[in-house]
Amino acid sequence: MKGMLQGFRGRWTAPIVLIGSILLGGCAQAERRQDPLEPFNRQMFAFNDTVDGAILKPLAKGYVNVLPTPVRNSVGNVFDNLRTPTTIINQFLQGKPGEGMRDIGRFVINSTVGVLGIFDVASRSGLEKDVEDFGQTLAVWGVPSGPYLVVPFIGASGFRDGAGDIAGLFTYPPTYAEDEFRFSAFVTEFIDLRAQLLEVEKLVGGDRYLFIRDAYLQRRADLIRDGEADESDPFLDE
Q1: CA pair distance 50, 139, nearest whole angstrom
Q2: Which of 112, 141, 195, 237 is deepest in the core (most CB within 10 A)?
Q3: What are the DSSP calls for the chain, one per residue?
Q4: Could you tell me if 238 and 154 are in contact, meaning their C-beta atoms sit under 8 angstroms apart?
Q5: Structural domain contains residue 119
Q6: pLDDT > 90: what percent of the chain?
Q7: Would residue 122 count as lying in a domain?
Q8: Averaged pLDDT for residues 136-145
Q9: Once rounded to an integer, what is the mean pLDDT over residues 27-34?
Q10: What domain count does the chain have?
């Protein structure tokens, strides 16, 4: 896991995408600048791992055992669709109206033809999923990342990304639902995300804290650059 869970779907694709390709190194100076809170972070990482082993992982295993893969995929599609408004808003805030309009089309198609996002019809029509959030927008606007931070019960984050996550709650439709539905939506998404990592986490070796931290930082830098190559060191620049 990324500490425990990143907590928000867009950023929790990080370890899934980067497993096997991260651990590219990074000098000691970069680590000191990016992770000055390492002693505290390691304690929170250990705490989150304990909570995960006692609660989240068993729930995720039960979720996988009870629901077949097609049903779990549909659940994930619904939450991906619910996160699309956040992506749309941030596309425009980052000065990418073309991408924003494309994601509006994706949201409309999946919310209607795709039955509230159960089926990802848009991707099959050539409208691939984008991931944009307020943390990325703040980075584009020049706000520094601040120190890497492991948040209790949430996992890998940073000062800038944490502020972005709070802002993202206001563009996430379940936030405005009745209390019971809102709670159920957040818990279900959390468990669904954890279930996606059951197989992937087996590939995490060595110092798990360093592995997950570096995966998170590199993935965030990659998202901010929209996947474009950068000759500079992302750990120093971001």
Answers
A1: 32
A2: 195
A3: -BSB--SSTTGGGHHHHHTTT------HHHHHHH-TTHHHHHHHHHHHHHHIIIIIHHHHHHHHHHS-HHHHHHHHHHHHHHHHHHHHHHHHHTT-HHHHHHHHHHHHHHHHTTTTTTS-HHHHTT-------HHHHHHHTT----SEEEETTTEEEEHHHHHHHHHHHTT-GGGGS-HHHHHHHHHHHHHHHHHHTTTGGGG--SSHHHHHHHHHHHHHHHHHTTT---SS-HHHH-
A4: no
A5: no
A6: 76
A7: no
A8: 96
A9: 54
A10: 1
The answer to whether position 197 is within a domain reads: yes
Question: What residue numbers bound the domain in which 233 lies?
Answer: 11-82+131-237
| Within a domain: 112 | no
Assigned token pair, 145: 């990342």
Instruction: Kindly report the backbone phi and psi dihedral angles of residue 33, in degrees, each rounded to the nearest multiple of 5, phi listed first.
Output: -70, -35
Tokens of 101: 């309009």
CA distance 26 to 226: 21
Q: pLDDT tens across 119-129, in order?
A: 999 999 999 99
Contact 158, 148 (CB under 8 A): yes
Which range has the top average pLDDT, 6-10, 11-15, 106-110, 231-235? 106-110
pLDDT at 136 exceeding the cut of 80: yes
Give pTM, 2 decimals.
Answer: 0.82
